[in-house]
């Protein structure tokens, strides 16, 4: 994905007062972008500026966020890491809020019966003004019956990434919904579930919140029960109405987000509608799931686009290439995603991610990533390599005619004996 998109917008009547919303999206048609945020002005002639990452805020304060992936490999050990990184749009100063790279203890001689694995996830579920909800869980497998599972569903708030207590924020409706869900489950247990979870302010403090229609879905992993039953957790999801302070952050039953100064909705095709002119779309945003919105003052800081760091990209690419054939493909992909973070949308990095997806058997991802790489390529040799990789995907799908076209176009851009040989093999298979 290119680092900045300015969208052409339809004219609309002037609004009564300045109105600005930060609309956070998880795109479905942009394999090179995990998240984007649309900075939308709803007053006057609506305008939208789309940048990579996420943004939360309230009033005059904005904090930009992004998820950064990384990986590590040592003989017998594969690790994937993720971090939630915050950035001040005024100064560009970055702070890690959650997760990140960890030093893992290597297995002692004689302990290891299988490869050790560590997976650190960081999935953003929802954004509500100056708060963000994430799944920051980690899982590791050390062979046999030895594994660990740390469920970390959390909601944190700007400016420092401090935890939000959901029992306090969501109030009585939330506590009642959890109590009913627990008691319903308890009624199915013959023993009465004596070690089951308890609905207390402490146990309900941490959780992950997301939009579900015009309500909130809250995911909890309550510490309780036996390790054998569910690794010491009880997983629970309840749906509750939005508390008063979040009313403008949750859409109504027709999908409108009402911010006081204005209202908008985004349809499944990414079309943005402003309520005062609801018949015509005011803009077209990247298609994807709306994670949440922040209403901020019109004169709050502009969103910052990070400067590309080519040296960091090349270093990350080298780290990934060094472990190909040794580490798991998921670890290579995590290292490549770290390189892509340094220069978003770089065609060489995207192409390598596409090839890793192909080797892992994820053909749809391989095709999407490689096509995204081709959109930004200017080097003929890289263009040829990418077309060869697309030919491999076509062959895996049994698309011989398409593979022949791709191999021929690859050879025209980059003469290569391997491509020439593969083209001859495909042509031989096509002979009646």
List keywords for this structure.
single chain; 432 residues; alpha+beta; Serine Threonine Protein Phosphatase 5, Tetratricopeptide repeat; 3 domains; nine-stranded mixed β-sheet; seven-stranded mixed β-sheet; 9 helices; 31% strand; globular
Give the secondary structure arrangement, pairings included:
Elements: E1 5-6, E2 20-27, E3 36-41, E4 47-52, E5 54-58, E6 61-74, E7 77-87, E8 94-99, E9 116-120, E10 123-128, E11 131-135, E12 138-141, E13 147-150, E14 153-157, E15 162-163, H1 166-186, E16 208-212, E17 215-223, H2 227-230, E18 233-240, E19 257-258, E20 263-266, E21 271-274, E22 283-284, E23 288-296, H3 310-322, H4 329-342, H5 347-359, H6 363-375, H7 380-396, H8 400-413, H9 417-430
Parallel strand pairs: 7-9, 10-23
Antiparallel strand pairs: 1-4, 2-3, 2-23, 3-4, 5-6, 6-7, 7-8, 9-12, 10-11, 11-14, 12-13, 14-15, 16-17, 17-18, 19-20, 20-21, 21-22
Helix pairs in contact: 3-4, 4-5, 5-6, 5-7, 6-7, 7-8, 8-9
How would you describe this structure to a colleague?
The protein is an alpha+beta fold and 432 residues long. It has 3 domains: 5-61 and 245-296, no CATH class; 69-240, no CATH class; 310-430, Tetratricopeptide repeat domain (Serine Threonine Protein Phosphatase 5, Tetratricopeptide repeat). It has 9 helices and 23 strands. It has helices spanning 166-186, 227-230, 310-322, 329-342, 347-359, 363-375, 380-396, 400-413, 417-430, and strands at residues 5-6, 20-27, 36-41, 47-52, 54-58, 61-74, 77-87, 94-99, 116-120, 123-128, 131-135, 138-141, 147-150, 153-157, 162-163, 208-212, 215-223, 233-240, 257-258, 263-266, 271-274, 283-284, 288-296. The strands form 4 sheets. Strands 1-4-3-2-23-10-11-14-15 form a 9-stranded mixed beta sheet, with no helix packed on it. A hairpin with a 4-residue loop joins β19 (257-258) and β20 (263-266). α3 runs antiparallel to α4 and α7 runs antiparallel to α8. The longest helix has 21 residues, at 166-186. The two termini are 43 Å apart. 42% of the residues are buried.
